[in-house]
């Protein structure tokens, strides 16, 4: 039996919820999969079985679902909006067997909802969902989202200006490709082949980026971190998950500890009338940075300032004064600490993940929370 399964039928401790309604079993997503059973004003999370890219992880997920079902019959099954995840397919199959609704919850809506649920805040609230990827309602790859969340409903108030994924999913594993996309967009495509000469595909990548249909867009902050790491030469190709983001944070931390604080780049970002936050200026500036540590520090400080300005503007527009910070990028301590402090200085109440991960390991709680609201209110 896998080590992710509880010994002798024991289950993890309950998380109190300030929300009552029908029982819901939520299946999480693909990365760092974990399930959640919410009922009677409390939630039980499974252990994290890992990414659903191995038969062992998929079997563990299914075994956890069976154990949680023994605690009560759910009135609905919740899952990620992406239809091709093993978690989504299993959720829909189980819902059909039980004759109950299968409720698809958009990935970033669930991220924000998980933080609201854990903090006992009913909403409405603003939410920042910052991660690597999640399927959006428009069919594109989201990951840098400013939302208004009110129970089962959410509104996309804004998002990061999209960057093209040169080579599709491969760009998520090779940060130099995201760096090349920044250079291409800045009119500096002629630098790609020489700057990334060690990469066999570099000579042809500018031509690929010329063909937008072959480079799907993403609003992911995770890919922005990759672009920054690639531009600074910290991690051209990743061997393990989040290697580029970790290298970027480590370089920034080392520089800040040695030298002290650095100012945010005053022209390092822009926000347009549609609520899009464009980080291209700070990224292009990194292409000319000679000190990787200094560049990493400049990037982090500027990013936190840009996100804070973005949220404060949305708070003024909506009249909401509470914001939930969510998504795997919040594992970055420089970002989470600086962003939270900046928002609190502006008088906003900031909610963050407490005992659960802000990333996908806590996602199922948000899915269950959204589904209960939908069942309670019929929408």
TrEMBL record:
InterPro entries xrefs: Carbamoyltrans_HypF-like, HypF_C, HypF_C_2, Peptidase_M22_CS
A Pfam cross-reference name: HypF_C_2
Residues annotated as domain Carbamoyltransferase Kae1-like: 127-367
Segments forming domain HypF Kae1-like: 22-118
Tree of life domain: Bacteria
Homology family: Belongs to the carbamoyltransferase HypF family.
The protein, known as: Carbamoyltransferase HypF
Source species of the chain: Aromatoleum toluvorans
């Amino acid at each position: 039996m896998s080590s992710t399964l509880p010994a002798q039928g024991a289950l993890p401790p309950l998380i109190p919820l300030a929300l009552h309604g029908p029982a819901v079993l939520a299946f999480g997503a693909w990365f760092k999969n974990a399930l959640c059973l919410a009922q009677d004003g409390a939630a039980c999370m499974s252990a994290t079985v890992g990414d659903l890219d191995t038969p062992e992880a998929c079997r563990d997920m299914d075994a956890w679902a069976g154990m949680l079902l023994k605690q009560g019959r759910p009135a609905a099954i919740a899952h990620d909006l992406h239809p091709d995840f093993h978690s989504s397919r299993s959720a829909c199959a189980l819902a059909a067997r039980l004759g109950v609704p299968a409720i698809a919850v958009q990935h970033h809506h669930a991220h924000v909802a998980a933080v609201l649920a854990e903090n006992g805040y009913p909403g409405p609230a603003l939410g920042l969902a910052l991660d690597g990827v999640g399927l959006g309602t428009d069919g594109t790859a989201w990951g840098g989202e400013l939302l208004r969340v009110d129970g089962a409903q959410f509104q996309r108030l804004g998002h990061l200006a999209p960057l093209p994924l040169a080579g599709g999913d491969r760009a998520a594993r090779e940060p130099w490709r995201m760096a090349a996309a920044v250079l291409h967009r800045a009119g500096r495509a002629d630098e790609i082949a020489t700057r990334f000469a060690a990469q066999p595909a570099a000579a042809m990548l500018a031509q690929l980026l010329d063909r937008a249909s072959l480079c799907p867009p993403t609003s992911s902050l995770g890919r922005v971190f990759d672009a920054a790491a690639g531009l600074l030469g910290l991690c051209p190709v990743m061997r393990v998950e989040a290697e580029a983001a970790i290298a970027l944070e480590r370089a920034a931390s080392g520089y800040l500890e040695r030298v002290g604080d650095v100012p945010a780049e005053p022209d390092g970002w822009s926000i347009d009338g549609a609520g899009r936050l464009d980080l291209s200026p700070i990224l292009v500036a990194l292409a000319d940075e000679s000190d990787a540590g200094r560049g990493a520090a400049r990037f982090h400080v500027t990013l936190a300032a840009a996100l804070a300005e973005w949220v404060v503007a949305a708070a003024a527009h909506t009249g909401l004064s509470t914001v939930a910070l969510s998504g795997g990028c919040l594992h970055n301590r420089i970002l989470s600490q600086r962003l939270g402090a900046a928002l609190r200085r502006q008088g906003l109440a900031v909610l963050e993940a407490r005992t659960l991960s802000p990333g996908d390991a806590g996602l199922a709680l948000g899915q269950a929370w959204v589904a209960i609201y939908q069942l309670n209110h019929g929408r």
